[in-house]
Design a protein that fits this description.
It comes from Daucus carota subsp. sativus (Carrot). The chain has 163 residues and is α+β, with helices and mostly antiparallel strands. Helix content is 26%, strand content 32%. It contains four helices and seven strands, in the order E-H-H-E-E-E-H-E-H-E-E.
Length: 163
């Protein structure tokens, strides 16, 4: 009896040489087209933007932007987090999100947030599993998709959660 091949999920940074993989994933995963600023911000966030590989196949990504708040504190905005449909439920999105949460804890960043379309129940439930909560609703946030409203979903990282 043979043992199945061990499947590995690995993360890799986004750089000039592989930015096209992020662009291709986004075109398949999301109903909006991202502009050049999105990709500049993704590259600038360094370790906070990652591609996910399932047995060496690029199947997901997380792209973040670092933002300065009043008083000089930094917070992380998750611009996109997505995994190709056939690879969902395998822990890839979890690995991507945990990577960013762990980085925030190590760098004393106390806030991570993102926008989620109000009818995206799967995404809302996914983020709630990681301690995110709905902190605001923005009407007409999206211009070319229905419904146009979104929730602001936030996780505050306190000293207790940084263990």
């Amino acid at each position: 009896m043979g043992v199945g091949r061990q499947v590995t999920i690995s993360l890799d940074g986004v750089r000039d040489k592989n930015i096209m993989q992020l662009k291709k994933l986004n075109s398949v995963l999301f109903p909006v087209r991202y502009n050049d600023k999105y990709y500049v911000d993704a590259l600038a966030s360094a370790e906070f933007t990652k591609l996910a590989y399932y047995s060496d196949i690029c199947v997901g990504s997380i792209a973040c932007r670092l933002e300065k708040k009043e008083g000089g504190a930094v917070r992380v905005y998750i611009m996109t987090l997505g995994v190709l449909a056939p690879y969902r439920g395998l822990g890839i999105g979890t690995k991507l999100l945990n990577h960013v949460i762990d980085l925030c804890a190590k760098q004393n960043i106390s806030e991570i947030y993102l926008h989620v379309q109000t009818n995206n129940d799967d995404a809302i439930q996914f983020y709630k599993k990681f301690g995110f909560e709905i902190t605001d609703t923005i009407q007409n946030y999206y211009t070319n998709i229905t419904p146009p409203d979104c929730y602001v979903v936030t996780r505050f990282i306190t000293q207790e959660t940084k263990k």
